[in-house]
Amino acid sequence: MKKLKTIFTERWLGYTATAVIVVLLFEMLEHLDRLKPAFSGIWSFISPILIGIAIAYLFDPVADDFFERKLLRKIKKENTRHLLGIILTIICILLIIALLLVALIPSVTQSISKMVSNWDVYTQKVQTLLKKAAEFAKSHNINIDTAAAENLLENSAGKLMETVKNNSKAIISKLGEIGSGVSNFAIGVVFGFCFLGAKKTLLGFLDSIRRALYTKETIERNNALLTRCHKIFARYIGCTLLDALIVGTAMLIFMLIMGMPYAPLISVIVAFTNIIPTFGPMIGAVIGIFFLILDNPIQALWFFIFSCILQAIDGAVIKPRLFSNSLGIPAVWTLVLIILGGKIAGMLGIILAIPFAAIFAIVYKETIEPRLKQRADKVNSAAHAEKEAEDTPGEADSGTDENEISAE
After folding, report:
1. How far apart are the first and last CA of the chain?
2. How far is the CA of 178 from the CAs of 164, 175, 182, in angstroms?
């Protein structure tokens, strides 16, 4: 037993355990695609519940802080005030969605129909550009074969329909997955408002469990930590959405002033892609250039120049003022976190990787690190005490011998 305790105090055991954990995590991420089918059934069951929790978390400040505590504060009955707050929140959400649909759907539909009707014109323009590029390269003794690209563009609409026909089963399967995701989201919305209605009951139940498991000091410490995590997460989500709204609105105003086509469609795409950290602005700019270069290459150039200026202002002025460096994540780790989050949870993982990493950094610094230090101090003190215990018998024996000699 003593040897076993000695083994647990050795540093090589900690290094070995860490290496094994890292290898296991790497293998899980490497074969994540194989593990997904095993968890698909579990995910389809819990995803509406998780969506409901997320929706309840996002809209609780609207129902609680704005409606209940400010707008409806004169109503004395707490249950009535809480119910009216939830109803008003639902009405506001539905009105916002209706306004967005009324404002965007006609213009987006018009943009898509215009693109489809002018598809042959766009392909001819691209073919002309390819021929000019080939002629320019040939004049400088550079041979570029554009026959394959021209063949692909020729009758591209018919080829697209043929491709759709040949892959109809895969397309139907994808549409089924999209329909399942939409239905899960709808069920999650219902769960979310149910959670909002039963918020006090659920929180009281969780609080009773915590009081049964932890001491008062531990609960207060955990509450302080959860409050900080909530502030970080809420600030990140709110500032990200506000930043996307500012960038999308600025792009819409610029495109309307310049008389560019597809202004509403491209502005919405730019706003949504701006939510994605690091790569999002580049994706939005590339999509916008693709739409505009088919119609007017000069306008595509102006769009590219304004996108660069807008993203520079956004990165240097808008985002620092909104976030105020409250996340505390080094810039070097941002790319790693985005890739890791995308590998684990797709687009949602990309968006939420940074705030979760910031929360993990706080949890590690304030909870895990002190415990690791306490554990290390305990191990070192145990090793020191064991070493002193090994040295003490020798000193005691020598002292006894000296006393026996003096007695003789």
Report:
1. 42
2. 17, 5, 6
Q: Quick one: pLDDT at residue 15?
A: 64
The letter for the amino acid at 231 is: K
CB neighbours (10 Å) of residue 296? 15
State how far the Cα of 227 lies from the Cα of 86, in Å rounded to an integer.
Answer: 23
DSSP assignments along 7-49, one per residue: HHT-HHHHHHHHHHHHHHHHHHHHTHHHHHHHHHHHHHHHHHH
Cα-to-chain-centroid distance, residue 151: 40
Q: How far apart are CA 118 and CA 6, in angstroms?
A: 78
| Per-residue pLDDT, 403 | 47
pLDDT mean across residues, the chain: 75
Structure token pair of residue 190: 């219902």
Q: What is the sign of the dihedral through the CA atoms of 212, 214, 65 and 99?
A: negative
Report helix angle 263-273 to 280-295, nearest 10.
160
Residue keyed to tokens 């639902």: 90
Q: What is the percent of the chain with per-residue pLDDT over 70, rounded to a whole number?
A: 72
At residue 408, the pLDDT reads: 46
Where is pLDDT greater, at 252 or 200? Answer: 252
User: How high is the pLDDT of residue 5?
Assistant: 53
Q: Which two tokens stand for residue 143?
A: 């041979």
